[in-house]
Every structure is written in C-alpha cells, then in structure tokens.
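Hi everyone, sorry if this is the wrong subforum. Our group has a chain we'd like a structural model of before ordering constructs, and none of us has done structure prediction before. Sequence below.
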Amino acid sequence: MNYIFPVRSVGEALEVTEANFDIKDYPELYVELDKVRIKEDDFETNYLQNIKTLLKVNENNIIEDVSKDYLKILFSGYRGSGKTVEMRRLHEKMLAPERYFSVLIELEKELAINTFQFEDYFILLIYKLANEIEKFNLRTNRLDSIIKEWVSDTEIEKKYLKEAKISNENEVGVGVSFFEFFKAKFNIKTELAAGTETAKTIRMRVKRNPMELVNKFNNALIDIRHDIERLNKGKDILFIIDGSEKIPSEVYERLFIKDADTLKAISANIISTLPIHNLYNLRHHTQLDMYDTFLVPVIKINKESTKLLKQIITKRIPEKRFFDEKVLDFCVEKSGGVVRELTKIVNTAIMYARGNKITMDIAQKTAKIMGKRMDEKLTTKQYNFLQKYKNGEIKRIRVADKEAGELIYSLVLLKYNGDIKIHPLIYDFIKKK
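Answer:
Right subforum, don't worry. Here is the predicted structure as tokens:
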C-alpha cells in the first residue's frame, strides 16, 4: 500500500504503528539510532564495527583479504529491538564489489517458521543463492546439479507436468528442460510448509547425508566465488539470515548446538540471529564459544534517546494531530527503549482514543492495561523473583539462570549496557513488601 507520511487518518495511523508493520519499503521512516545504542569507545557495544572487522573489511570499507577460516556469527537481541533492521542495514553495507556478494535471507518471508525443519536451513541457502546469482547471469551449474538430485524423482516430474496441464510429457520432457520448468514453478515456502511429497523427497535427500551435501555445496561455492570476483560482484560470499531465532527450539538447538559441525563446515561467512535467552544459556556455553556472538542492546531512556525514539513515531504520524503535549514522551518512557514496545503502546493508545487526541489520561490507562496483561502472565515464582529484585533483596541478576532467562526472553526484564531493569509497563504491578 502507498502511504503519504506522516499519515493523518486514524485507520492509517493504526496500520503504520502495528507491531508487524514493515518499514522495508519505506526508507524515509528509518531512524538512525547508533549514537544512542552504540558507544564508539565501548568495545562490546560497537557491534557493527566489530562485525566489519571480523569480516576483514578495513577502514576504507574494502576487504583486505579473503577469509580462509569462514566465520559463523550469531546476532542476538530482544524481540522488537530492531534486529531485522540491523541485519538489513548490515546487508546493505556489505553488498558491494569491493566487499561481499551478500545474500539476505529473511526466514519469515521465505518459509513457514512453525514447520521449519533442520534440513530447510541448507535447502534455503542453496536455493536462495542459486536464485540470486542467476539474476546476474552467473553460472549455476553446480548448484543446479545439487537441486536436480533433490528432484530426480518420477513422481515429482509427473506432478509438475500435471499441474501445468500438459497432456504430452514430451512437450516439456525431462532433464534440463524439465528442471528449468521446475525452477520457474517451484514455490519453496508453499511446498515445505505443506509437507508435500516434493518437500518430503527433498528433505529426505538432505537428511540422508547432510555432510555430503555440504561438500558439494562447498565445491559449488569455489566456482561461484571465482565468478563473482571476475564479474566484479564482490570479493567473497556472505549469507545474512534473519529470523532463525524464531524457528522451533528443538530445530534451533540441533542446527546451532548439537549438529553445529554441519553448519560450521560450510565454506562461507554466515550471520544468523540467536534467541536472546540462548545467548546466556550456560548449558550451551561450550558450543556457543564456536561462534562470534553479538547483541543489539536495549536503548537507555534519556533526553537524547527520547528525541530519537519519538522520531520513530512522528515520521509515521504527526505528533500534534495524535498526542497532547508530553504524551509521546510518556509513551517512550514506558517502552523501556524497545522499538516495537513503543509502537505497540502508541497503536493501543490510538485505538482507545477513538479518533481523538491521546491525552495523558488515555496514555496512562493504556500503559496500565498493557502492564496488567504482562503481570497476568507471570507465575508466582516469577513474581516473587521480581519482587525481591525490586526490594533490593537480589543485588545482581544472573542472566544465565533459568528464571532470569525466561523473564528476559519475555521482555519483563530489560538488559541495558551495564544493568538490568524491570520493564516500565509492569514495574508498578510489582509491589514492595
């Protein structure tokens, strides 16, 4: 849909502040948060520079030398903290002839997350790369040969011929001509989500010997790497995969923890997202040490950050049209510095205002309702834990503890640079003894 920002109607205001509203097609809505999120002199928080350094991109934004020890980087943060935007931004910064042929894969758009299986990660890497390099008329022979093995099944051929309503199979035939037809018609998201016979066949062939697949993929990458450099499309290959923190936990653990050797064996730099509670899971500490891990920190609320966070809203809807004075500042404060929390608060308040301006009374009642919903989801044990922390009985939260990990994952506890705070929405519901 085409919007003229900032929008003025209540209906459009609700649409553009929805939690799932994607600003990808509206670059004018982007707000640069680096100066309140990243401290230049803080080695740990300057994650963008650290990743660039690991990827051997120098201060002139050029790859100094192609890696021989391919990195697997895990990128973490709260839900709604801006990971997706940061992954897209990293992709844009890395995609250049003097840097990388960067392939961005957003899992939620490519596949159905709830049906995601271990094999799908490798299937998608290969299929997505084949599609991307084809756009630049690069050779896909070796990748095509892998995909051909997946679909070299009479029943699959018959299915696609039937769907095309071709009565005479010779009109398309088999082999290369059938394969080109298959690639044009194959919808990887629909097939894998539905668990079709085609999907079962492909997954089974990957599952049978994943390391053999990786070896074939690595051989293909040698050719592709040579081609992209020859045609000045990049010095090396980089995969950036967003949404992997949302796949089923058992699949995630197998992919990145239990069978991590398969992933690590791929001869390409890969950045994948990581669930924040897994970042502090001591049980996986040894395995996670195999990766370079980075965290998008929550933004501390102060005068400077409030000004920038307000822009996330005012670029979408005009402040004077929708808010009484100081009301948007209050919404920012209650968000705790999490971008999606801010848009959710504003979206809910617009709904309760019924087309009128959001008064401070409406904003406060909105915050109370949202805080109550958060409070109602706490177990007695979790509530008691938070009460002790608020009372000062717990001096330091160990984020690796199961109790703390669950509260961090659910945004009840917010981890800033240096300290941990109870989410402002629920803070007043935690009563002092």
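For your construct planning: The first helix runs from residue 10 to 16. The beta strands are 72-77, 100-106, 236-242, 269-274, 292-296, 413-415, 420-422.
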